[in-house]
Amino acid sequence: MKKLLTTIVAAGALLTLAACSTNSSAKNSKSADKTVTFHALNGDIKVPANPKRVAVQNYPDEVASLGGNVVGTDSWAFPNPYLTKNQKKNMVDLGAPKFNLEKLIEQKPDLIITVDKDQVADYQKIAPTVLVNYQKLSSMNESLDYFAKLLNRKDEEKTFLKNFKKAADIQKSKLEKAGVTPSKNTISLLELQGDKIYAFGDNFARGGQTLTTGLGFKQSAKMAELSKGIGYAEVNAESLKDFDADYIFVDFAAVDKAQFTALENNPSWKNLKAVKEGHVVTMDYNKVYFFAGPTATKKELPLYTDAIIKATK
């Protein structure tokens, strides 16, 4: 009964908002922002030419990096520690895996961006909704370009990329002085969760874009396969030989440190080239596991540079 009542209230709120929006649009049509047609996964959508209040799943970093006003995002992306207070000043946690409709309505977005096709119909009752095909936004440059077009912020994109290159060049120089030439070295990314081991491509956070797009490391052959596919795979210790590389990056939470110790004692692990050469770099799970937007990628540059230098001294 309680669940039914909540649903009815949410539905009523949606109808009320739609009615209010219609009346408001009629009264203020002269002052309303212009709209443009944007080709999205869910068709040609009329969106504000210059969105002022954006609710976005998965990609709050991209919107914020371009100077957009993010008023809400999902619970997984919300904790991003790399966004500034100013970038997050209007941002609220809208829940996950789908947005809480009542909270979404309260934020009064003029544009909603989602990766969940099943929720588009509900979101469209609140504001113009763009469905994103996240599999096609596999790199920082691709995703930044996509959102710059959607938000009409191409100048901001150019500025960000210029500053990103400067920051990356500084860190590359530090690595070169330490005897590490990224462009001549391959990498693989692993993560430990409980008794499971996961391998990742460069498009699933875990420092992938920082290391490749930013610092210029090459992907191992097996890592490149994951990057072209769904982005990750569960593996076992015996199959790690397929992910051997010049450098292996492993992230895990503090509670899984014993799992890493156990892995270090595994014969299959000890036989890896990166292990033998002392090129295993451990990272804090909480700092890298889900944060891969442009700002996070930029701010992770010194984090990874320092970790590499420390691990390979």
From TrEMBL:
What start and end residues bound the annotated signal peptide?
A: 1-26
> Which key words are in the record?
Signal, Transport
Main subcellular location = other
Question: What is the top-level taxon of the source organism?
Answer: Bacteria
List locations, semicolon-separated: Cell envelope
Query: Which InterPro entries did the record assign?
Result: ABC_transptr_periplasmic_BD (IPR002491), Bact_iron-sidero_bind (IPR051313)
Q: From its record, what is one biological process in GO terms?
A: iron coordination entity transport
Q: Name one GO cellular component term.
A: outer membrane-bounded periplasmic space
Q: Provide the Fe/B12 periplasmic-binding domain boundaries.
A: 52-312
Q: Which family does it belong to?
A: Belongs to the bacterial solute-binding protein 8 family.
What name does this protein carry? Answer: Iron-hydroxamate ABC transporter substrate-binding protein
